[in-house]
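Researcher: Quick sanity check before group meeting.
Model: Go ahead. Protein one:
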Amino acid sequence: MNVKCIIFDLGDVIVDLDFSRFFNEVITPSPLNKPQSSIYLEFFRQSDIYHQGKISDEEFFKQSCELLELGEELTQTLFFEAFNSIISGLNYDIVEIVKKIKQYNRLKLMCLSNINASHWKHLKKQKWDIWDLFDEFILSHEIHMTKPDPAIFEFAIKKAGCKAKEIIFIDDGLNNIRAALEFGINCIRFTSYDKLILELKNLGIKFER
């Protein structure tokens, strides 16, 4: 198989996510947060427009406070400190996979991420050695589209500069995988390090000379 491009997701693949601080500091204080309530899910549905870069940080903060009925004691600064804490660290095992792919294969490496402006700015402040590993970052807040919208995969294929069947797409989201498969892209749903290595090898990716 002639693979010319591998596209990685960021969140919960290359970057670890932890929602606990945000939940404790923002969701829990909401008077609407009850066991039978779906307010947490509703919040993240509403945040999709922010991931698409269609509202500002201030507008997102105001909409969140309105949705969650939060008091004035939660300032915008405190809100975004908690919100950015969702980015909890780097998955170094996956970074090593990316480094080996880059070392032993001649192909294009890209990131395709549903990510908002605040999280991206927070990520870029981290002293992580991942930025030069990728040839292209496709960020939802910059192109105003999010996965699993088919349009974002059309965009990614164009950026890859090859046929869909020559691309491998790695993502933890099942709906994103299903959407990419519709285009004939080779997909790997990320669930574990060992499974990822095995599936990449099955698709002809080298990890040594």
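Researcher: Fine. The other one?
Model: Protein two, sequence then structure:
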Amino acid sequence: MFPLSLKSGLVPRNKFNVLKTATTINGCRQFVKTGGSLCSIMMVFLLPVLLMIPLISCQHSQQIISRNTENSLPPKTFLIPQWYAELPKVDGCRIDYGYSGIYLDANRQKEDLLKNGSVNMAKNDNVFIEVGWAGTQTHGQGLTASYILEKEWQGRASVLEKKLKIVREYRMENGIIALCAFCPDESLLQGLIDQIDDSLVNINSDDPPEWVKEPISHPGHVYGIGIAPNQIKPGSAWEEAERQARAALAFNLAVHHKVLLKTISESTSSMSQKLSETKAEIVLTDVTIIRHGYSHADQSFYALAQMPISAGRVNTGN
């Protein structure tokens, strides 16, 4: 019944009377049950249970791993291309980012990237923005808007969609990011392609990016920091951070031009100032999203927007 090479095991002599007789192989103690042994009874009933324990344990571990994976945050090593961490500097070309889900149909994915990229470029090129804030702003930190309305960009987006070129794509978890460009001629486009840095950088840290802790300041420009909470799709979170960055630009410009519809209340301390339903209506022109970042500690995505502060590019809304 068993091969001779089998070293040990239990061989029932009678399959209908296994509790009464059993024998071991290869020098193990042989016993014959004549009246039914307690040890034999325990062996028969406990052996299947013992064999099931590893299976149950393995299944439980797989369930834990599966749950942790589903609810996981970006890992400590969060790699993105250098061209996304910091926007390439190229004269003569308009550059922006596009976001899309992952599709089996490559043509549909390309269409989504171009459409989204054209919308972002149109908003950054020229947009009338109405923003409201409430709460407390901490010095050096981005201010999250209560509501953001962006208008008068749709027509330009439709035109740009036909002119944009996808220069680079990078697949992240649950989505694609793309570097989109509009260049007047092919030589400028080729020059942009030649100088793009495709190296991967780890943007994750236990603290917000340095440009958040110590905001950048250059004469003639105004900056806005956008913050978005963690989302399943990193691209969606960064897109929201870019929207918040434009809102922060509107706030800073409204303060600079003294066109806030409600003034800021007295500072609650040297580090913060209390806002009371403050509102601004501003036309943003020539906005550029120049940085992206992520902090594992506060599970937040960051974007940094830059814009010339010249009077000819900034106007109050009607």
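Researcher: One line on it for the slide.
Model: The radius of gyration is 32 Å.
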